[in-house]
Structure formats: C-alpha cells, structure tokens
Design goal:
The protein is of the alpha/beta class and 388 residues long. It contains eleven helices and 18 strands.
Length: 388
C-alpha cells in the first residue's frame, strides 16, 4: 500500500510540474541577451583552398591588432572591417603546425575562436594546422591509433601528487603478456606534460611510423618536468632552480620509472629505456641519461640548454659518467638543433666535446630555429632508431 501511494504521489508531482510549465513558460531571451551570449560567428583560423590562411579577431574598440605567428619573424598588422573584425590572410612557408597569437593594443591573447591551444606556463598561444597535399607523419591518417592517458602519481621526492601523460600504442593490453620498451620524453622550459602530444603530436607520429613498420611499438611517458610552481605554492621552495638537474634526475629515477614499471606492461632492462628532451628538457635528460648509462641506453638531446664550460664541468664533477662508461653502454647518443636556433653554437660545442671524448653520436642540424616545428622532425627521426 505504501509503495503504491509513493508511486501515485510522484506521478502527481510530475503532472503538476508539466502543467505549471505549460501555463507559465519561462520568459524568452531578448535579442540583446541572445546577441551577448552568442556573438556573430568569426571563423579563425581559416585554411583556404589556395594554401593561404586567414586569421580573424573581433575587437571593435581595439586601436591596433597584429598577428604574431611562428610562420614569420615579425608581427604582421591586421586590418579592421566595418563590423569591427580584424583580419589578415597569409601564405605559410610550408605545411606544418604553427603557434600564433594576436597582439591587441600590445597585449598577447589567444584566438578565442580556436580550440587548439599551446600548453605552456608562460605565453598563451593558439595553433593552426596547415595541411599539405600529402599527409605528413604528424597528421592523423587511416591507421590503428594508440591512446594518450592522463595519469597521476605520488612523488615522495617533492611530497605531493604529480601529473604525466602516457602514450600506449595500438593493441596495447594492460593485462596482456607483451611488454614494451619505454621512451621518457621531456618538454622544454615553461612547457607542460601536455606539450609533446598537443603540440609535438608524438602520438600521431608514432601511430603512423608504427603502422608503416618504421618504428617499434613503444610506450611514451611525458612527465611534468617542472615541480617548482607547485613547490612554491606549498612553501617548499622560494624560487625556481631551472638550471639545476639533480631534482629532475631523482624524480625520474626514484618516482617516474618505478610508477611506470608498476602500472604498465614494460620491459625494465636499460636497452628498453630511452630518454629524450627539448631545450631545458635536453639539459635535464643529458644529466639524467649520460649520468646513468646503466639505466638508459638511448639518450637524445634536442637543442639542449647547455652553456659555456658546462659540458666539461659535468664530465669532471660526475654529473655525467666517464666517457668510456658512456661509450660502452649507449646504443644511441643523438644531438639535434636548428641552424637558426639560439642554442646552435652551444650544440656545436657539445658535438665537439663528445668527439673529443670519443663518444660516438648522431647529429641532425636542419634549418630553422628553436621551434616545435623542428621538434616534430627530431622525434620522427629518433623514433625510427630507438629500440632497434
């Protein structure tokens, strides 16, 4: 009886509410309210059939709007129309993924009409993906796709939980018997753990290389290499020690690798571990990889931030292992840097220092600067070589 009464009561409430809604419908939004909520659509960026790209930005009251894009060395002035939309059409030098932003009366802002964002602690850029007539390795193709997961681990090293992104290849079975080699991939200064897959497109690159038989199936671990913002917030640090590498090395060896080897089907011998990094990440992986050749047999530095006599000092003070130990352990030492990169001369110095110490290594010195356009080329070539 009680159950039947409850059902009847619920039905009565539903009926009453429906009748009330029909008799007193909510007041319709006014045209002004709708206009405020849904402003006129601005399409940006727009990749045109002739290969050009049009950027647009709505700013009726702005006095000056410029396009800042890594297609070009300098900002380009945009033109405002009668509706207050600033625009510019440009011709990219080549198909690629380019970071860009708008400079509105001197203030850098992302493109509000573009969901593709460059993850970074400092500058806030959007991304424009300019496709060529033939798909590149960084483009999505009709191949089996892997998976990028967001994972969190507790770091005893710094005392709090930390994030990472992990790529697992197509066919990976967390309960299966097949075990995979691991690439530990480190971002640059002010980048984040998301940058290598959202900007570097390492997941797409590996999907395509693996599908074509050009790379081995592997797991890629992308940790957040900079714990200092959180440490400063918690009061455990008063400044960022960006040039120091000891904390990074401890984090990788004592926290990240154990977490990965506990939670993923991976091989744990040194020949199944690679470490690579860009810019500040290149500096960090040299310390971690060359300092522990018994842990990593593939060490790959992309435009590493190494200055002055630091290479010699690192060999002398034990940051790097002895040259003969490195040579007898490493299967691949890789160094790459663009010839227009501000770190090109320091990369050449590192190249010469490795030669002087008899450490065999491969180099790649293409055109271009300190950009993620070059980084995608670096990781494409490295992925073809490791774990072979």
């Amino acid at each position: 009886m009680k159950k039947s009464f409850l059902i009847v009561a619920i039905a009565a409430c539903v009926l009453f509410n429906n009748v009330s809604f029909a008799q007193n419908p909510p007041r319709a939004l006014t045209g002004r309210q709708l206009a405020a909520m849904f402003p006129p659509g601005v399409k940006s960026p727009e990749c045109n059939k002739d290969g050009t790209v049009t950027f647009r930005f709505q700013a009726e009251n702005a006095l000056k709007v410029e396009l800042n894009c890594q297609m070009f060395e300098e900002n380009k002035a945009m033109t405002k129309d009668e509706k207050g939309v600033w625009s510019i059409t440009v011709t990219p030098p080549a198909p690629d993924i380019y970071p860009y932003c708008f400079v509105v009366d001197g203030i850098q802002v992302t493109d509000p009409n573009n969901v593709l964002i460059f993850p970074n602690e400092n500058f806030k850029n959007s991304l424009v993906d300019v496709r060529g007539p033939v798909p590149d390795f960084q483009d999505m193709q009709d191949v089996p796709h892997g998976k990028v997961s967001y994972r969190y681990y507790h770091s005893k090293n710094v005392g709090f939980d930390r994030p990472m992104c992990v790529y697992t290849p197509a066919g990976y079975d967390p309960k299966g018997k097949e075990k995979y080699p691991v690439l530990y991939l480190i971002h640059g200064m002010t980048d984040t753990y998301e940058t290598w897959f959202k900007v570097g497109k390492v997941n797409m690159i590996l999907d395509n290389l693996i599908a074509q038989g050009l790379a081995k199936k592997m797991i890629v671990v992308m940790p957040y290499a900079n714990p200092y913002p959180e440490m400063m917030r918690r009061g455990s640090a008063t400044r960022m020690d960006m040039m120091g590498t000891d904390l990074f090395t401890k984090e990788i060896l004592n926290e990240v690798i154990p977490f990965v080897e506990k939670n993923y089907q991976v091989r744990s011998e040194p020949g199944s571990r690679a470490i690579a990094g860009f810019s500040l990440g290149g500096r960090q992986i040299l310390a971690c990889g060359l300092g522990n050749p018994d842990k990593f047999q593939y060490v790959c530095a992309f435009a590493p931030a190494i200055f002055g006599n630091e290479v010699s000092n690192n060999f002398d003070n034990g940051t790097y292992a002895k040259p003969e130990v490195i040579s007898s352990n490493l299967k691949l030492m890789w160094l790459s840097c663009g010839t227009s990169d501000f770190l090109y001369q320091t990369s050449l110095s590192l190249h010469n220092s490795l030669n002087e110490r008899g450490i065999q290594h491969r180099t790649m010195f293409p055109d271009g600067g300190h950009t993620w356009m070059n980084c995608r080329d670096y990781i494409t070539e490295v992925a073809k070589l490791i774990f072979k």
